[in-house]
Amino acid sequence: MNTLAPARQRSPLHDFLSPDSIAIVGASADPTKRGYKAMVGLIKDGYAGKIYPINPRVDRVLGVKAYPSLADIPATADLALICTPASSVPALLLECGKKGVKGAVVLASGFRETGRPEGIRLEQEMLAAARQGGVRVIGPNTSGMFNLHKKVNLLALSNIKAGDIGLISQSGNMLLSLVLEAERNGHVGFSTYAGPGNQADIGFNDYLRYLGEDPHTRVATLYVEGFRDGRRFLDAAREITALKPVVVYKSGSTEAGQKAASSHTGALAGSYAMTVDLLRQVGVSVVQNSDEILPVAEGLALLQKARGKRVAVVADGGGQATIASDRLAEAGLELAELSEATRRRLAEILFPQASLVNPVDVAGSSDANPALLADCLEIVAGDDGVDSIFLVGMFGGYHTRFAEDLLGGEMRGAESMIELARKTDKPLVVYSLYAPVNPPALRRLHEAGLPVYSSIEQAVRVLSALGERGIYLAACAGREAVPAALPNHEAQAALAAAQAEGRDLFEFEAKNLLRAHGIAVPEERLAGDAADLAAIAEHFGDQPVAMKVVSRDILHKSDAGGVKLDLRGEGRMRVAFDEIIAAARRYDPDAAIEGVLVTPMARKGTEVIIGVVRDPIFGPVLMFGLGGIFVEILEDVVFRAIPLSYDDASSMLDQIKSHKILGGVRGEAAVDRAALIDLLLKVSAIVQAYSQLAELDLNPVIALDDGYAVVDARIIVDRCARDVAGGKGGQR
Fold this sequence. Notes:
Layout: H1 14-17, E1 21-25, H2 34-45, E2 50-54, E3 60-61, E4 64-65, E5 79-82, H3 89-99, E6 103-106, H4 117-133, E7 136-138, E8 145-147, E9 152-153, E10 162-169, H5 172-185, E11 190-194, H6 204-213, E12 219-224, H7 230-240, E13 246-250, H8 264-268, H9 272-281, E14 285-286, H10 293-303, E15 310-315, H11 318-330, E16 334-335, H12 340-349, E17 360-361, H13 372-381, E18 388-393, H14 398-401, H15 407-423, E19 428-432, H16 440-447, E20 452-453, H17 456-476, H18 489-501, H19 507-516, E21 525-527, H20 533-540, E22 545-551, E23 563-567, H21 569-587, E24 593-600, E25 606-615, E26 619-626, H22 631-634, E27 637-641, H23 646-655, H24 659-662, H25 673-689, E28 693-704, E29 707-710, E30 713-717
Parallel strand pairs: 1-2, 1-5, 5-6, 6-7, 10-11, 10-12, 12-13, 13-14, 15-16, 15-17, 15-18, 18-19, 19-20
Antiparallel strand pairs: 3-4, 8-9, 8-11, 21-24, 22-23, 22-24, 25-26, 25-28, 26-27, 28-29, 28-30
Helix pairs in contact: 3-4, 6-7, 10-17, 11-17, 12-13, 13-15, 15-16, 20-21, 23-25
C-alpha cells in the first residue's frame, strides 16, 4: 500500500481518527440521543479501546462506568465525541485541552452555518478554546465519524463493511445513501469517514492528507459542497493523487461564482466548471452524477489505472455493443483499433458471422460455451493497441437464459477472467444485465476483485476514470511548473501609481508590462489630443490602424462607442478621434479620458481570450478560450490554477469545445500552437511576479499561423495590496 514519503510530517489527524480511547460527552441510555447511538455503535462492533461515558447524572451507561466530567476520567482520551448543545461546546473544549484530548467531534449545530451574529461569534469562541488547548475539531455541525478498521462506529450504522474506500462528506444523507448503496452492492467497504461540517478547524485538505497516509485506504472519496481554502486542497490533492486515486463529487458552485465581476474573465471564473477544471488539473477524478460516486471509487480502488483511453469491447449482443460504443465516445474514450493478428486469432474461435472489429460481437458463438468470452478477452488483452477491456452483455446469466448446465462453463470463464486480470496490467471492467441478481459467476468475479456493473453508463465512467488517471500519472513524471518572472521596475512603478490613484492600468501601461516580459504586443501610440495625430499618422504610414479610447472609467470600450477600426491617413484618424471622444462623453459624462490609443490593425486570425483572476477560494486562476465580444455568451473556456506547467497549458488548447478551430477548418491555416502555449506560460509567470495584479484580460488575442497579436489588454489592480516588491503574487 502506498504511503506518503517519510520526509513529510505525519498528519496529526491519525491521533484521533484512529483512537485507542474515546470519551462520549453526553452519553445517554435514551435511544433517541446521539450519545446513546455512539455507545451502541462502539459496544456492538466490539471496539477494543477504552470508552469513557460522560454523564453527571448516572453511574453507568449501557453497562459502562460513567464519569461526571472529562476531568474525572482516570486517563486522557484520544477523541471526545461532544453530543451536548452548542452553547456548552467552548467550555467543554477547554476541558478537553486540560485533559490532553487530541481531537473532538462537535455534533451540535447553531454556529456559523446559521448566518446569525451569535452563531458566528459562538464558532469563534469554540475555535479559540480549541486552539488554546491544542484540540483539533471535526465540525461543528457534523454528522460524526467512523473508522471501521478500528471498530469505531460513532454513527451506529448497521450492515456496513470495513473496506478500502475512505469517505469525507459534507452531507450526512449522502453518507447514508452511499452506505445503503454499498450494502446493496455487497462487496464495497469503507475505511474512515468524517463529516467536515463547518470546517471551522479541519478542512478538506487536512482530511485528504490523512486518507493519503492511511494504509487502510486505497481511494479517497469526497462529497464537497464548498471549500474554505481551495488552494490548499489543490496542493494536497497534487501530492495525494500521485499515490492513490481521489474521487470528488462537487455540488453547486463556489462562493466566488455568486459575485459580480468587472472583467470578462471575472464574470466567467468562480463557476462550477472552473472548480472541476482545477480539480482535474491535480489528478482528481471528478464525477458529475451522484450515482457514479461509489462505482468510480470501487473501480479505482480495485483497478487503479489504465495506460490510456483505448478500450476494446467484447459483447454478446449488437445492441448493447452499440450503446457501449456511443457512451465510450461521449466520454472521450477511443475504440481501440485491433491489429490484424488479433482479428485472425478471434476468427479462429468465433462463428463466421461474428464481428471482428471493435466492438467485437461474438454473434452467438458463446451461447453454448460462455467460457469462450474469456478466451476473447485474453486475445484482445494481448493487443498492444488496447489499454483496457470492457465485457458487455449477459455473462453470468447464460445458465438462466439458456440451460442450467451452462453454469459450469460460466464458472470456468470467471476463473479464466480472474487469471487474466492477475497477469495483465490492462483493467477488465464487466457490465452484465444479470448483475442485479448477482449470479454465481458474477459473485466469483467480485470476490476476486473484479468490478461488475449493472449499468453501461457507470461502467464507462469507471473506464474513463481509469484512463484519465493513467494518463495523468504518466504526465506527472516530467511535469514542471514554469517559475515566476522577475518583476520589471517600470511595471512595478506603473502598478504602484495606479494603486495610489485608485485606478487600474491604462491599456498602454498593461501592454508595456506584457512587452517587458517578452510577450509580443503590437506597436502603439497614445494621442492625448487631436494635435498628436499628425506625427502618429506619419509614423504608421499606409498601415490601417485601430483607435480606442483610454479611460480609467470605461471598462468595455466597444459598449461606449470608443473603438474605431481600419482607418488610414490623418484625416480619417482626426474624424475618428472626435467621434470616439464624443461617444465616450455621452456614455459617461464624468469619465476621465486620457486620450486615444492608435495601433496597427491585426491580421485576420482566430480570436481567443486569455484571462486571470485571483479567486477567493482557489487563488490565481488562468482562463483560456474562444474570445471576442461573444465570450460570455459562448462560454467555451477552460481554467487552470497558476502556476502552469507546459502540460497544463497544452491541455487547455485541447480541452475547449472548439479546439478543432485552432487546428484549421475549411481551408484556414492552423494557429501557431507553440506560440499560444508560450503566451499562456508567460502570463502565468507574470501573475506570480506581481501581487498587485488582481485580474488580467487579454481579449481578443488574434491567434495566427505564425504567432499571435494581443489586440486588447486590461489589468485590474488590487486596491488593497500595498506590497509592490513583487515576486510573491499568487503564493498562499
